[in-house]
Amino acid sequence: MAYKQFTFLSPVTFIIALAGFFLTFTEINCNGQQLDTIKGIELVTGYEQELDFNLGDDNSAEEKKVEKYDPNIFALNAFIAAIIGLVLMAVKKLRTNYKLVAVIALIGFVCLIAMMVDLKTKIADAQNKQDSTLNIDLNIDFKMKFGFWLVTASFFIAAVWNILMARDKSKQPEIIPETFDDTP
Questions:
Q1: Which of 41, 59, 94, 138 is 20 to 30 Å apart from 101, CA to CA?
Q2: Where are the domains of the chain?
């Protein structure tokens, strides 16, 4: 019952999660120098990365290589979960289906954690692969940035909040409207 005054919390968390996809999710550093940053929406839609390989002296030609990356399935599923969460909050009949909303938020949360593991594994595999452009003896550091943590926290808060609301709702007795029977 004490939670009723914060009913705005669930839709706000999904709005924050959706907006967070437009912030920087990851940063790739090599020996302390930033190589690339990737926004959440780029992980959802796929992106191109231009790699510049300077061969040493200033007179030498620079080799540029563009790598295309497909959408990350985990990021895509988390983005869809944020959209579905917003739709559920917009439909009045579904707004109080706290269990369903909690499941959607948990799906988004788990997908983001899986995305982080997937990206870190792909970077490590690319470094160890023989014919990879990253197969060099450098320290490549992969960090998750504010946008990722904001979206992850939003999904987690939405999940916990809706679980609490579902638990509170299940403790309340269901009110059955009275029907009037005029037959003698």
A1: 41
A2: 2-170
